[in-house]
Amino acid sequence: MQPENQKSTDFCFTWQGARASLNLTPDFVAMEAAVTAIRVALPVPLRQHFDYLLPPELEVSIGCRVRVPFGKRELVGIVWQLAVKPDVSEQQLKPVLAVIDQTPVLPALLRQLLSFAADYYHHPLGEVLTAALPALLREGRPLADYLPRAYRLTDSGKAANPQSFSRSAKQAELWQALTTQALDEATVKSHYSGSALKQLMAKELVESFQTEIAPYHYQGLAEPALQLTADQALAVTAVNQAQGSFRPFLLEGVTGSGKTEVYLQLIPSLLELGQQILVLLPEIGLTPQTLERFSKRFRAPVLVWHSNLSDGERLNCWLQAASGSAAVVIGTRSALFLPFRKLGLIIIDEEHDLSLKQQDGFRYHARDLAIKRAALECCPILLGSATPSLESLYNCQQGRFTKLTLTARASGQAMPQLELVDLKQQVLQYGLAAQSIQQMQQQLKLGKQVMLFLNRRGFAPALSCQDCGWLTECQRCSAFTTYHKHSRQLVCHHCGATRAVPRQCGGCGSTRLAPVGQGTEQLEEHLSVLFPEVPVTRLDRDSTRRKGAFASLLAEIQQPGPRLILGTQMLAKGHHFPFVTLVVIVDVDGALYSADFRAPEQLGQLLTQVAGRAGRGHDKGKVLLQTQHPEHALLQDIMLNGYAAFARSALLERQQTLLPPCQYMALFRAEAHQSELCQQWLQQVASYCQQQPQVQQLGPLLSPLERRAGKYRWQLHLYAAQRPLLHQLLSQVLAEVSQWPLSRKIKWQLDVDALDLS
Ligand SMILES: Nc1ncnc2c1ncn2[C@@H]1O[C@H](COP(=O)(O)OP(=O)(O)OP(=O)(O)O)[C@@H](O)[C@H]1O
Ligand SMILES: [Zn+2]
C-alpha cells in the first residue's frame, strides 16, 4: 500500500515535478544532429519568426525559457517549436546562449491559447506572450529562486550543545524551535531574529532548502449558503450538469437578482474535486468586495490578480495557480492567462463591460479569449450581467450559448420605478429640477441615501470668456480642457495635458472667465449648499486616486443614515448600496445623439446599471432621469420595456443594418502629425482590400476625436458576413503593409472586433 504522505507528494509542486503537475504533453526532445533550428517567441513587437541554433550540448523542451542574442541585446524568450527549417540561412543563425528551464513554464494548453490569440488578433506573438507572462518570469532567473524556502538544522546543528548558545538567547530560541521541526521563511521572518538566523547559517548549524507548494485542501463552507430562489436554483443546476465539458452560459439576471450567489453556489462541488475556479471582473475596483464575499464563504484559498499587485505578488499568484494551491482566483483581464493546474469553471461578471477589452497594445477581449480557454480546458463558462452585451445575446440566439435568467430581485423587492423629468422650460437649481430636489429632500428626511449620477468629472467641462465666447481648448487635441477647481488646473481628459488656469481670455484678453457646464466637483459643492446637513460622498477618478481611497469611500456608503452619493460611471459597476432609495441621473442628453453605432447599447446598459443601485435593501427604489428629450425613442423604450426588450430590438436593428455582432468587423487606425499621411495610408489599405468584394469598407474617415496629443487620427472599418474571409484578408494586408515605406511614417494599429470607435 502506498503511504498517505507519498500520495500527497505526487500532487505536490516542485519544479523537478512541474511537467507532471502542469499537465504537459511530452514534447521534450533531446536535440539531435539532424535538427536545424529552434523557433523562439521573443517579447518584441515584430511580426516575424526568430530562429536560433541550439548548440549540441544544450537540451530544451517546448515552453521553456531560453536566453538568446538579439541585435546588440540579449533577450529571454520561450521555445515555441523544435526542429524547424530556419527562415534564414544557416550562416545567419545565431546560437542559443542558455537554457533557463528544465521543464516548461508555459504548458501546452496555454501555448495553444496564446497562438490562437496571436492569430485571431493578428498581433505579434511576442507581445501576446508579454501580456501572459508575469514580469519576473520575463527576467530570466530560474524559477527555483522564487519558490518558497524553509530552514532546518544541519547534522552539526542537530548535534549542537544547547550550552553553546548561552550567550545568545535569540540564537538559542531559533535553534530550539528548529530541533522540533523545519520552519518556513515567513514564520522565521515574523517570529525570530534575522541576525540570529544569519549567524546560525554562518556556523553551518542551519541550512535553507526549497519547499513545495501543495495543492489546496478544501475544508468546507465557512458560512452557510443562502436558500436559493427557484430561478437561481435552476441556473446552478444547469451549470453543474455541464461540469467537465465545454459549455458557455449567459446568466441574464436583473440588478440585485443574486447573480453572485449563483456563482458562489457553483463552486463547492468543484472544490470537492480539487478543481480551480477563475472569476474575471472588468475592473480592479470590484475585486475587494468580490474577494470579501468569496473568501468569507469557503475554507479554501481565494487569491486576487490585478495590475496593482507588485511583481512578487503576481508571481506568487501565478505559482499558486500552477501548483493548484489557489482554489479560486479573482482577477481582471490578464488573469485568463494564468497556468491553472486544473480549471473547472470560468465565471465572468459584468460580461458586457467594455473594460474587458484591452484598448491599447494587444487589443484582446478577455471574454472572448476566456471562451476559447474554456473550450481548451473542457470546462463550462458562465457570463453574468444584468445588461448583457448584444454579442452574447446574439450568441444565445444562434444557439452557441445557453441562456439562464433571473427575472426578479432576490430580496423579493420590486424593481425600482423609473421616471423621466422633463427639463424643458424649467428653471434649474444647480442643474437639478425642482421635482428632483424635492424628492431628494423627502428621502434624506426619512434617513435614506440618494445617489446622483453625472458622468463628467472635474468642476466644469471648459472655461469660457463672457465677453467673446472663447473656450479653453487643449492645444494638442480637438477637445476642450476640463476645469479642475480643487487643483486649480485645466486638464485635457484625452491626452492628460495640464496647465494652470489662465487669468485672461486667450481671444480678447478679458478677465471675465467663467465655467461652462457642470462636473462632479461642482455638483458636490452645490449639494453642500442645498443640503448643508447631509454628508456627501463623491466617487470619481479624481476622488479615488489616493491608494485606499476607493475602499474607504465605499465603506462610508455602507453605513446607514442620510447621505448624498455622487459619482461617474464608477458608481454603475456592480456595487451593492443597501441604503439608496433614490437615484437621480443628472444629465444623459450628450449621449443620446452619438454617431457610434454602439452608443444606444452602452447608454441602455449604463442607465439600467445606475438605476439598479436603487432599492436594493428593504425599501423600494425610485429613479429620476433628467432630460431635455423625454420623447427620445431610446429613453422611452428603456423606461417602458426594460433592458431585455430594448436589447432585443437593438439587436434586430444591427441585423438589418449589417453591423456587429451580426457581421464581423476589424478597424485600422492611423495616427500622424500630418493628417494627409494617415488618409493616404488608409487609402492604400482600402485599395488593397478591394480585391475581396465580400468585405465591405467604411472610410477612411477622420476619427470622432480628430486630433489627440498632437496627432491626427483616421480610421478604416472593414465588415464581413464570414469571419474566415475577413481574417484571410487581414493576413494578406498585413503582409503587404510591412513593405510600404509609408507604414514607417505613421503609427498604425489593427483592432479586431473594435469596441472603441472614438
Ligand atoms: N437566494 C437569496 N436569498 C436571499 N437573499 C439573496 C439571495 N441571493 C442573493 N441575495 C441577496 O441579494 C442581494 C443582491 O445580490 P447580488 O449582489 O448578488 O446581486 P447581483 O445580481 O450580482 O446584482 P448586480 O447585477 O446589480 O450587481 C445581496 O444582498 C444578496 O446577499
Ligand atoms: Zn489633449
TrEMBL record:
Cofactor: Zn(2+)
CDD domains cross-referenced by the UniProt entry: DEXHc_priA
Domain named Helicase ATP-binding: residues: 240-406
Molecular function, one GO term: ATP binding
InterPro entries, per database record: DEAD/DEAH_box_helicase_dom, Helicase_ATP-bd, Helicase_C-like, P-loop_NTPase, PriA, PriA_3primeBD, PriA_3primeBD_sf, PriA_C
Entry keyword set: ATP-binding, DNA replication, DNA-binding, Helicase, Hydrolase, Isomerase, Metal-binding, Nucleotide-binding, Primosome, Zinc
EC top class named in words: isomerase
Cofactor note: Binds 2 zinc ions per subunit.
GO-annotated cellular components: primosome complex
GO biological process, one term: DNA recombination
Residues involved in Zn(2+) 2 binding: 474, 477, 492, 495
Enzyme Commission number: 5.6.2.4
Residue numbers binding Zn(2+) 1: 465, 468, 505, 508
PROSITE patterns referenced in this protein's UniProt entry, alphabetically: HELICASE_ATP_BIND_1
Reaction(s) catalysed (UniProt annotation): ATP + H2O = ADP + phosphate + H(+); Couples ATP hydrolysis with the unwinding of duplex DNA by translocating in the 3'-5' direction
Family indicated by similarity: Belongs to the helicase family. PriA subfamily.
Function, as annotated: Initiates the restart of stalled replication forks, which reloads the replicative helicase on sites other than the origin of replication. Recognizes and binds to abandoned replication forks and remodels them to uncover a helicase loading site. Promotes assembly of the primosome at these replication forks.
Subunit structure: Component of the replication restart primosome.
Descriptive protein name: Replication restart protein PriA
Species of provenance: Alishewanella jeotgali KCTC 22429
Lineage summary: Bacteria, Pseudomonadati, Pseudomonadota, Gammaproteobacteria, Alteromonadales
Name of encoding gene: priA
